[in-house]
Design brief:
Layout (H helix, E strand, L loop, with lengths): L1 E7 L4 H12 L3 E7 L12 H6 L3 H10 L4 E5 L5 H14 L4 E4 L1 H5 L1 H5 L6 E3 L4 H11 L14 E5 L2 E4 L18 H6 L8 E3 L2 E2 L9 H8 L8 E2 L2 H15 L4 E3 L8 H14 L4 E5 L6 H10 L1 E9 L3 H7 L6 H13 L3 E8 L6 H14 L3 E6 L7 H8 L5 H8 L17 H16 L3 H11 L5 H16 L1 H12 L6
Parallel strand pairs: 1-2, 1-3, 3-4, 4-5, 8-11, 11-12, 12-13, 13-14, 14-15
Antiparallel strand pairs: 5-6, 6-7, 9-10
The structure holds cobalamin and iron/sulfur cluster.
Length: about 500
């Protein structure tokens, strides 16, 4: 069977994994890709420019011309409405099975299947379920016979059939390496990015705003949510990537790269001798120590992403279900600074309940730890996550708001998101004050500049500029590639 994936705005490892798996079972895959520079949720979201560069019609035309047997969408909440719109336009012209998967589909599968032009939806891990579905579709167009088929959901005589997920894939080494060609051939700019790789699936934590929180409820029968590839398997993929694409750096995009010290010890030894490329990764203060910082340094780590989210321990634990203390954050940062590894901190504005005093506490923490970069997110409610229940409890979300969220109506995470409209001015002030801590490290100078900053117009623009400057200073290739992507000539799906 020939499966055509449709995606926009970024490389997607989930699709790459599925494509590789499908190919390994004898199926053919292709990708129709919309660069969506101004609506990809990654860099800048601008309705005006997005409309000017809209290529939806071309996408639909190309899909139809490619004569697929099945059309497949990977939906996260931000692209869900776009996926629906493209699916509808395809279905209006050809009657072909349309399959949805991805994190948004997993969270609200019944809502997704309510759309008449979505025929099948796959929740959770997709590899084995997709093969079963495709094998089934080669003989039949209806879901008849799929009742009880783990992860596969569909409509049967107007009834929704929502099958439970099958157990996790325990041995990740059994999976073929992601099909990077699928994206690299469509969008050569990605070749210049750090090579994105996942060495694990799952996270030991369940922060209230994160999709892991939703996934852990879905997979509540599983004893452990984390699975990890062997170090040898990861090294083989990287050796292959070095040979095929000449990669220059690596991005370990595991939820928490440092969950196991013993794994890291073994990995760093092999990585240093066989790969020896600079890399970045995500860390967590509760899975960190001086020894881990040393191992990262030894392996060639240049930058880590550290989710702090709030400097107020109350906001962090009660709103975000993050139970690390400020002391643990400060310690993690000091180990990293000792090793001269750059730190990019994430902060989330817009917790359902948050006073100005909590923002002050965040400012105090950032002034203390002086991160090299600070990326501000504005709370966006992702379907199925427990922060939605919390927001409802505090009267911040109504049932109709939640329905809206499930239908993909969320704000842009880097600019106001779902934050309370009345607080945006306050948040923008603190956004600038937080950003300043990354470029002005002298306390007295900071105090003077911060008092002036409060009176600046267009605070968001200044915050963005500071973030860019830090990005260029500390992780040049990554930020430069974002620009390269934005300005390269994009019009072919
Ligand atoms: C790596 C990563 C990125 C990378 C690469 C993107 C990617 N998806 O590979 C980058 C940095 C580009 C990125 C960007 C963004 N990301 Co991101 N990202 C991740 C991360 C950490 C890992 C994704 C991954 O590779 N997982 C491993 C693969 C194997 O799993 P998977 O993607 O879930 O795919 C499996 C199944 O879902 C299913 N499946 C997936 N697609 C399909 C399609 C079909 C047809 C079928 C049948 C099955 C199927 O099968 C796959 C294989 O088992 C996840 C968190 C996480 N742990 O998943 C967040 C995550 C996906 N990102 C998220 C967000 C919000 C974003 C951004 C919007 C952030 C931003 N504002 O900048 C952008 C969106 C960019 C875009 N246009 O795609 C959210 C999405 C939440 C939501 N409900 O929408 C997540 C879940 C993190 C979170 N906050 O909870 N991200
Ligand atoms: S630590 Fe990160 S990946 Fe894990 S649940 Fe929290 S936000 Fe999600």
């Amino acid at each position: 069977m020939k499966v055509t994936f449709i995606y926009k705005g970024a490389e997607n490892l989930g699709i790459e994994y599925l494509s590789a798996f499908l190919k390994s079972k004898g199926h053919a895959t292709s990708l129709i890709y919309d660069p969506a520079v101004f609506s990809s949720d990654v860099f800048i979201n601008s309705k005006v420019f997005a409309r000017l560069l809209n290529i939806d019609k071309k996408v639909v035309k190309t899909v139809i011309a490619s004569k697929p047997d099945i059309v497949a969408f990977s939906a996260y909440t931000g692209n869900y409405k776009w996926c629906l719109s493209i699916a509808r336009q395809i279905k209006e012209q050809i009657n072909i099975p349309i399959v949805f998967g991805g994190v948004h589909t997993t969270a609200v599968v019944a809502t997704v299947l309510e759309n008449e032009y979505v025929d099948f939806a796959i929740v959770g891990e997709g590899e084995h379920a997709t093969i079963d579905l495709i094998n089934h579709l080669s003989n039949s167009r209806s879901g008849d016979g799929l009742t009880g088929a783990g992860n596969i959901c569909f409509k049967l005589s107007e009834k929704l059939i929502i099958n439970k997920p099958r157990p996790y894939i325990q041995d990740l080494d059994t999976l073929p390496f992601p099909d990077k060609d699928l994206f690299f051939k469509k969008e050569p700019v990605f070749l210049h990015n750090p090579y994105l790789i996942m060495t694990s699936r799952g996270c030991p934590y369940a922060c209230s705003y994160c999709s892991n929180n939703m996934l852990q409820s879905l997979y509540s029968n599983e004893r452990c949510h984390i699975r990890r590839r062997s170090t040898g398997n990861v090294i083989t993929e990287l050796l292959d990537a070095k040979r095929r694409y000449g990669i220059k750096s690596v991005g370990f995009v595991d939820d928490v790269f440092t969950i196991s010290k013993s794994w890291l010890e073994d990995f760093v030894e092999k990585y240093k001798s066989l790969i020896n490329l600079p890399f970045y990764c995500n860390i967590h203060p509760l899975a960190f120590s001086k020894e881990i910082a040393r191992l990262l340094k030894d392996g060639g780590c240049k930058l880590v992403f550290l989710g702090v989210q709030s400097g107020s321990e109350k906001t962090r634990s009660q709103m975000f279900l993050r139970h690390e203390s400020n002391e643990q954050i400060i310690n993690a940062v000091s180990y990293l600074k000792e090793m001269k590894i750059k730190i990019s901190v994430d902060h989330i504005f817009g917790a359902p309940v948050e006073e100005e005093v909590d923002l002050r506490k965040s400012l105090d923490l950032y002034k203390n730890i002086k991160p090299d970069m600070l990326l501000t997110f504005w709370l966006t409610y992702y379907p199925g996550t427990s922060i939605i229940n919390l927001a409802k409890k505090f009267g911040k979300l109504s049932d109709s708001d939640i329905r809206n969220i499930n239908e993909g109506n969320i704000g842009f995470a880097h600019n106001t998101g779902s934050a309370d409209r009345n607080r945006i001015k306050l948040y923008k002030k603190y956004e600038l004050l937080f950003e300043l801590t990354t470029v002005v490290t002298h306390n007295q100078t900071y105090n003077i500049l911060s008092q002036l900053a409060v009176f600046l117009p267009f605070k968001k623009l200044f915050s963005l500029c500071i973030y860019m400057i830090s990005g260029i200073r500390y992780f040049r290739p990554w930020i430069i590639n974002k620009f390269r992507y934005a300005v390269s000539w994009h019009n072919a799906p």
